[in-house]
Amino acid sequence: MTAPILTLENLHVHFPVYGGILRHKVAEVRAVDGVSLEVLPGETIGLVGESGSGKTTVGRAVVNLLRATTPDVHLSGSILYRSAAGRIVDLNGLSRGEMNPYRSEIQMVFQDPFSSLNPRMTVEQIVGGPLKLHTDLDRRARRVRVAELLEKVGLQRGYAARYPHEFSGGQRQRIGLARSLATNPRLVVADEPVSALDVSVQAQVVNLMEDLQGEFGLTYLFIAHDIGVVYHVSDRIAVMYLGSIVELGSAEQVYRNPRHPYTRALLSAVPKADPKRTRAARTVLAGDIPSPLAKPSGCGFRTRCPIARPECAIAPPPFVTVEEGHVAACPYTEGTRSAAAGS
């Protein structure tokens, strides 16, 4: 069996909330609350959920960006990465200097192409930045490499001298992709890479990412809120709600045979060209996602769940096995058996 390139083990990410004149800690936001996940080399695993589910925080934890923006963030658990040299390292807790050797192997594509590119830098400077930091290439060699990368993502070589404001959203995201590929990474965390784009442009960018994956042997952690997009690009799908994974399986298993009530609600919201499909067939959840400042006891989804029972408030639900490779964190969905039973 192929060893995973990335393994998350009971990952927790909590952000402190300060108040009062003396700015003392009054609460904490439990953005990620015990996520465990394996990512295999060469696969695309989709991480899907509503805004506030914690999926972006998981991605930023993997690339070790959280402490740079929030120094007092509390992280626990393990983020085990298998490097190109075969060494397994826990990225969680590494300092900036300790993380540098792995930056070239783990890259990120950010959500907003309009704010993730420095408007004062040319495309050549943006795409060539990682080359300057992580390689020994001279200026001429970096320029050649930048031109090659632009062609790989469907842009002209001459665009290297231009600035970000001269491009459309789709072109800017292609520049972001070129930057992420500059150092020949093994793992790319794509944080909602198409959510800010028009639907027609989304398809172009998604197809480009799939082509690049095949050419460069990339592994993707693809983060999005649109389960329809995630289904088309992913080998496996992990559904997140309020900081926890509630369902995990192959793309076909999760999309065609969803078992967690939250996954069913997400899928019912996907537009379908079916004139016979009525509004009554949709699953409409009550209320909004609770605040991670005050998560419900037991099952975090119980306050909106259409099949919730009194016992759901007692303890977090265990994962149950739906079929091989497909689990859901709900013991009350039909046709499931306990994962702990191992049968």
Keywords, please?
disordered C terminus; 343 residues; alpha/beta; 4-stranded antiparallel sheet; 24% strand; Rossmann fold
Write structural notes for this entry.
The chain has 343 residues and is α/β, with parallel strands linked by helices. It has a domain of 175 residues: 3-Layer(aba) Sandwich (Rossmann fold). 29% of the residues lie in helices and 24% in strands. The chain contains ten helices and 13 strands. A nine-stranded mixed beta sheet has the order 6-7-8-3-9-10-12-11-13, sandwiched between helices. Strands 2-1-4-5 form a four-stranded antiparallel beta sheet. A hairpin with a 2-residue loop joins strand 9 and strand 10.
Q: How would you summarize the topology of this molecule?
A:
Blueprint: E1 6-19, E2 24-39, E3 44-48, H1 55-62, H2 66-69, E4 74-82, E5 88-90, H3 96-103, E6 106-109, H4 123-134, H5 139-152, H6 169-181, E7 187-191, H7 199-216, E8 219-224, H8 227-233, E9 236-241, E10 244-250, H9 251-256, H10 261-268, E11 320-323, E12 326-328, E13 337-338
Parallel strand pairs: 3-8, 3-9, 6-7, 7-8
Antiparallel strand pairs: 1-2, 1-4, 4-5, 9-10, 10-12, 11-12, 11-13
Helix pairs in contact: 4-5, 4-6, 5-6, 6-7
Total beta strands: 13
As a percent range, the share of helical residues equals: 25-40%
SSE string, helix = H, strand = E?
EEEHHEEHEHHHEHEHEEHHEEE
Provide the residue-averaged pLDDT: 89
Summarize the structure.
The chain has 343 residues and is an alpha/beta fold. It contains ten helices and 13 strands. It has a domain at 6-105 and 185-259: Rossmann fold, CATH 3.40.50.
